[in-house]
Amino acid sequence: MDESLSKKVIDQDCKKKLAERLLVKLRETFPDADCSLRFRSPFELLVATILSAQCTDVQVNKVTTVLFQKYNEPEHFVEISSETLEELIKSTGFYRNKSKNIKAASVEIVKRFGGEVPQTMDELITLAGVGRKTANVVLGNGFGINEGFVVDTHVFRLSHRLGLASSKIPEGVERELTSIFPQNDWCFLSHALIQLGRNYCKSRKPDCKTCPVNSICPQLDNIVKKG
After folding, report:
1. Is residue 187 part of a domain?
2. Which of 119, 142, 165 corresponds to the end of one domain?
3. What is the model's pTM?
4. Which end of the chain has fewer beta carbons closer than 10 Å to its terminal beta carbon, N or C?
């Protein structure tokens, strides 16, 4: 084995050991970590996730509490006018594009999938407004299928700070994370990391002193100095 390949193997082994310790810490700290979007079906989750782009989950939940009282099936969104839907989701931002995607995705679900949200990555990403992140959210939380790792801004930031990933794009970070964590834990870990990012490891002023994983954070000294 040449030296460069050996170093990669060693680095990967170190990441896996760090991942094991991190998983234990996160399970201790956030045992009930779960999706913060409110939904009663995979379709409602799909709509809520599309609405969550550039919007807080809190605001999305406020909107869907009203929206899903009357519109909660693909057929409902096929029939609803764009103007009505836009008005209902306006406070989530980018409402015209979101309305267009939700209606288009609903049409496809009805026509191509018999009114049921598909349960594979390849099929989900063919729907309007659905990329890997949204598909991973729906698969993991709507169907209990761990096909990928949700990489939002929190997960992306923490993955780099904790030394778990180096890729500059979400897809690359996802590949790195899925290579070091057990597949059965991917969904839980995405939610636990999001909670860690929201509550402790914030973008501008991370609370390193009380962070539950500070004992294993390889960037602790650098973060504290920058802060």
Report:
1. yes
2. 142
3. 0.90
4. N
What is the separation of C-alpha 84 from the centre of its chain, rounded to a whole number of angstroms? 28
* Sequence-ordered alpha helix ranges (H) in 30-56: 42-51
C-beta of residue 44 within 8 angstroms of C-beta of residue 75: no
For residues 133 and 53, membership in a common domain is answered with: yes
User: What is the reported pLDDT for 129?
Assistant: 97
Distances (CA, A) of 157 to 11, 85, 154, 194, 202: 20, 34, 5, 10, 9
What domain range includes position 138?
A: 42-142
Asked if residue 37 belongs to a domain, the reply is: no
**Coarse DSSP helix, strand, coil percentages of the chain, rounded to the nearest 5 percent:** 65, 0, 35
Q: Which of 114, 142, 170 is the last residue of a domain?
A: 142
At residue 218, the pLDDT reads: 82
**Where do we find the tokens 């989750």?**
45
pLDDT > 70 in the chain, percent = 92
- From 30, 88, 82, 34, select the one nearest 59 (Cα to Cα): 88
| Total number of domains constituting the chain | 2
Q: Does 61 lie in the same domain as 131? A: yes
Question: Catalytic residues, which ones?
Answer: 133, 152
- pLDDT tens figures, 69-122: 999 999 999 999 999 999 999 999 999 999 999 999 999 999 999 999 999 999
Cα angle value 35/37/38 (rounded, 5°):
110
Residue 52 falls inside a structural domain: yes
Same domain, 8 and 68: no
User: Cα(first)–Cα(last) distance of the chain, in Å?
Assistant: 41
Judge whether residue 21 has pLDDT over 70. yes
